[in-house]
């Protein structure tokens, strides 16, 4: 009975070994958006400096592998200014949203005992979520407020692009620690501002750290 159990456990371990699962996080190295400032309008944008998500990888022979991630980040932009030449008139806009990123990468690991450098390339999809824009205006001391999930500058809530990057895979016992840098070129802009104050960036760089088992 014992040899049979050992054989079953060995077979299960051999079957599961090519698959690894874990968490991945990091920080954006570039801003999600850029804004222009004018004399009458004050604009700002904030890219929260965190990325969180999960990762899975299928390890293949000859140093090859296929990785799929689900990553989340958050951003915000706002603007405010006077209306015309009447100083008592004022308007402000505040927009928040999250972005879900779904990269699928082919990987190649170079040889090594503990540290394995790797390169990766593939495709990614980016989906906005929770997009909320609140516009407040004050005209002759009367305040009006409106909220929408489809602002005028929204061009695409989903886009895809090409990804490339590299890093190292450090194996500590049964844990793989993988710091890496990725660059993504998105095929389309999420936002196109009709008046040119908002620029949705298509080039993205990020530092990521994965911990898998």
Class computed from helices, strands and strand pairing: mainly beta
Query: Quick one: CATH class?
Result: Mainly Beta
β-sheet strand percentage: over 45%
Task: Sum up the overall morphology in one term.
Answer: elongated
* SSE pattern: HEEEEEEEEEEEE
Total count of domains: 1
For the biggest sheet, the summary is: 8 strands, antiparallel, barrel
- In spatial order, strands of the major sheet run 1-4-5-6-7-9-10-12
Overall mean pLDDT score?
A: 88
**How far is it from the N-terminal to the C-terminal residue, by CA?**
29 Å
Rg over CA atoms, rounded to whole Å, is 23 Å
Within the CATH hierarchy, at the fold level, what is the topology? Porin
The CATH architecture is Beta Barrel
* DSSP, total strands: 12
Question: Can you give a write-up of this model?
Answer:
The structure is a single chain. Helices cover 7% and strands 68% of the residues. It is elongated. The protein has a single domain (19-212), classed as Porin. It is mainly beta. The strands form two sheets. The protein has an eight-stranded antiparallel β-barrel with strand order 1-4-5-6-7-9-10-12. The protein has a two-stranded antiparallel sheet with strand order 2-11. It has one helix and twelve strands; from the N terminus they run H-E-E-E-E-E-E-E-E-E-E-E-E. It has one helix spanning 2-16; strands at 19-28, 33-35, 41-47, 51-59, 64-83, 86-109, 115-139, 142-148, 158-172, 175-186, 198-200, 203-212.
Chain-wise SSE layout:
Elements: H1 2-16, E1 19-28, E2 33-35, E3 41-47, E4 51-59, E5 64-83, E6 86-109, E7 115-139, E8 142-148, E9 158-172, E10 175-186, E11 198-200, E12 203-212
Antiparallel strand pairs: 1-4, 1-12, 2-11, 3-5, 4-5, 5-6, 6-7, 7-8, 7-9, 9-10, 10-12
């Amino acid at each position: 009975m014992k040899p049979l159990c050992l054989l079953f456990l060995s077979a299960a371990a051999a079957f599961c070994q090519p698959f690894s699962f874990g968490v991945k996080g990091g920080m954006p190295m570039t801003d999600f958006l850029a804004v222009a400032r004018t004399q009458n309008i004050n604009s700002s944008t904030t890219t929260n400096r965190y990325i969180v998500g999960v990762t899975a990888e299928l390890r293949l022979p000859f140093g090859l592998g296929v990785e799929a991630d689900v990553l989340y980040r958050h951003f915000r932009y706002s603007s405010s200014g006077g209306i015309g030449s009447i100083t008592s008139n004022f308007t402000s806009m505040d927009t928040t949203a999250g972005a879900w990123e779904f990269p699928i990468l082919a990987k190649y690991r170079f040889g090594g005992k503990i540290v394995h450098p790797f390169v990766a390339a593939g495709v990614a999809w980016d989906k906005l979520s929770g997009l909320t824009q609140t516009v407040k205006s004050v005209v002759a001391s009367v305040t009006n407020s409106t909220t929408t999930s489809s602002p005028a500058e929204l061009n695409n809530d989903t886009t895809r692009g090409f990804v490339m990057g590299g890093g190292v895979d450090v194996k500590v016992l049964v844990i793989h620690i993988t710091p890496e840098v990725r660059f993504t070129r998105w095929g389309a802009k999420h936002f196109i501002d009709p008046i040119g104050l908002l620029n949705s960036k298509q080039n993205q760089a990020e530092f990521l750290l994965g911990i898998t088992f």
